[in-house]
Amino acid sequence: MMLQSYATDSRYYLTEKLLNILLSYTNRFAYNTSLIFVATKSILSTMSQNAVYHLRQQRLALSTKPFKARGCRVKRCQYCLLPIPQCLCDETVSVQAKSQFCLIMFDGEVFKPSNTGKLIADILPDTLAYQWSRTEPDSQLLAVLQDTTRQPYLIFPDSYAQNDRIVVNQPSISDKPALFILLDGTWPEARKMFRKSPYLDNIPMLSINDKARTDYLLRIPSREEQHCTVEVAATVLEQAGDIEASKQLFAHFNLFKHKYLEGKPHHPTAQRILSQDPQ
C-alpha cells in the first residue's frame, strides 16, 4: 500500500519513501533485512542527490503561497511529481558519465510535472541545477561557469546566435570533460534567459538542431529545432561519447513519458500513444 502524504519537508518525504520501499521489499522477500537495507540505501542515495528536487525544496521554503496549475488537485509523489499510482522513483537507475549538466531553470519550472530536466538529475547524480535570475545570478552558478577543469557549452539553436558568437555542432573530445549548460523552461522563457544572461555570452554554443529525437508529446514545439530538455541531453551525451548514459537517459525518458500519459487516461494524445505502444 502506497503511503500518501502532502508534506513538503524533504526529510519527512524521504522517510515516507523509505517506508514504502520497506513495505514493498518486506512483502517480496519475507523480512530479509539485508536485502531491505541494500535496496533502501540505493534508493536513498539516488533521491538525496537529485539537484532539481533540492532546488524545488529551496523554492518551497521561500514560497508564500502554494504553486497551483492544471492538475494541482492530483495526489502526486512529491519527488517525481507523477500521480502516486504512476510513481517511477523505484524504477530509477542512475549511471556515471564523463560529461556534466548544469540546468538553469526558469522560475516555477521545478514545480511542473511535465518538466524533463529533473530526469537528467535522476540518471546523472552530479547534475547541477540553479534558478535563473536576470539581475542576481547565483554565485555558485557563476563559479561553476568559471571552472577551468571543464569545457562549457551552452546548448541552444544556432539560429539565435549573433554573428560573433562561437557556434559548434559537435562537442570536442579532449582531456577536459564537457559541462553542458541547458536553459530549462518553455521556449519563450528559454529565449528570454538566452537574451538576458550576459554571463553566458562568452561560452561557446553547441547547436544540435535536428539531431535530437522528437518523441516528446507533452509540450508541442513551434519550430523544428526546438526539442525538450531531456532529449537534447541524451543526444549530446551520445555525441560526447557517453553512450551508456545516453541510452539510460532515453530509456528513463521513455518510462516517464508513458507513466505521465497513463496519468492522463482521458487525454486524446494519451489514448492514441498508449494504444499504439503499450509500456
UniProtKB/TrEMBL annotation:
Classification via InterPro entries: DTW, DTWD2/TAPT
Q: Which residues form the DTW domain?
A: 73-265
Statement: the UniProt record of this protein carries the keyword S-adenosyl-L-methionine: yes
Enzyme Commission number, as recorded: 2.5.1.25
Q: Which GO terms describe its molecular function?
A: tRNA-uridine aminocarboxypropyltransferase activity
Q: What class of enzyme is it?
A: transferase
- Write the protein's name: tRNA-uridine aminocarboxypropyltransferase
Q: Which organism is it from?
A: Providencia rustigianii
